[in-house]
Amino acid sequence: MGCEPILEPHRDAVGLTDGLDLTDLPNGAQWNGRIAYLDRDGVLNIGSEDYVNSPEQVVLLPDAGLAVGALRRAGFRICVVTNQSPIGRGHWPSGTLARIHARLRELLLEGDPDAHLDLILHSPYAPWEGAWARKPNPGMLEAGRQLLEAAAKDSNLVGLFIRFDDDWTDRADESGSVMVGDRGVDMGAAFEFGVKAIRCDPSSGLAGVIDKILEGAA
Ligand SMILES: [Mg+2]
């Protein structure tokens, strides 16, 4: 890493290291350390070349809620990692994205009461900013791991300082984790981070690859 400041991932409506309350895993299961890092558009909901610009435009892919619920029942925590350049391009403010994500959470839980998203991280930067947080760079995955591990111990995240790239040396075992996406940038971020990449078809999304993920996790 050079002397450039790291352009970090963002969370909806709060600072990156503000408190994070995790919802218990289903059936009293203990977290086994696995994280399912999920791209958003083409994985959970239908994407668009013109972006998803409002809560009304959020349309889930078939059985997306059931697939997220199945991951959590298998002991995964869920970290959504989504590039959101419309913010950096000035199309709309981050508050719009927070409302879009509130709708996404609501629809997933309608599909399956276990389908909680433990954490949603986004990169608000435009492509030309070269952000470490923007896929195919792995900054969102790096932050996701550190945030979820810290929150599992203490939801207040007191003293948490997120490290990136070569500054983060004590990395967790990601051999049981997966990154699911529908595009090359998702596969690139998975490779850079060092986690198994699973590419889904954007017309079927997560539900189209859930059996493959769960077989690999068994
Ligand atoms: Mg996508």
What does this structure look like?
This protein has 6 helices and 6 strands, in the order ββαβααβαβαβα. Helix 1 (64-73) crosses helix 3. Helix 5 links the parallel strand 5 and strand 6 (196-199). It is globular, with a radius of gyration of 16 Å. The mean pLDDT is 96. A 6-stranded mixed beta sheet has the order 1-4-3-2-5-6. The protein has one domain (20-167, 175-217): 3-Layer(aba) Sandwich (Rossmann fold), CATH 3.40.50.1000. The termini are far apart. With 218 residues, the chain is of the alpha/beta class. Helices cover 30% and strands 12% of the residues. The structure holds magnesium ion. Residues 39, 41-43, 47, 181-183 line the site of magnesium ion.
List descriptors:
single chain, 218 residues, alpha/beta, Rossmann fold, 6 helices, 6 strands, 12% strand, globular, binds magnesium ion
Low-confidence stretches: none
What is the oligomer described by this structure? single chain
> Which structural class should the secondary elements be placed in?
alpha/beta
In CATH, what is the homologous superfamily? Answer: HAD superfamily/HAD-like
If classified by CATH, what would the architecture be?
Answer: 3-Layer(aba) Sandwich
Q: On the 0-100 scale, what is the average pLDDT?
A: 96
Q: Which class in CATH terms? A: Alpha Beta
How many helical stretches?
Answer: 6
Largest sheet composition? 6 strands, mixed
Bound molecules: magnesium ion
Gyration radius (Cα, Å) is 16 Å
In angstroms, what separates the terminal alpha carbons? Answer: 37 Å
The CATH topology name reads Rossmann fold
Encode the helix/strand succession as letters: EEHEHHEHEHEH
Number of discrete domains: 1
In percent terms, what proportion of residues is strand?
5-15%
Silhouette? globular
Biggest sheet strand line-up? 1-4-3-2-5-6
Task: Tell me the total number of β-strands.
Answer: 6
* Helical residue percent band: 25-40%
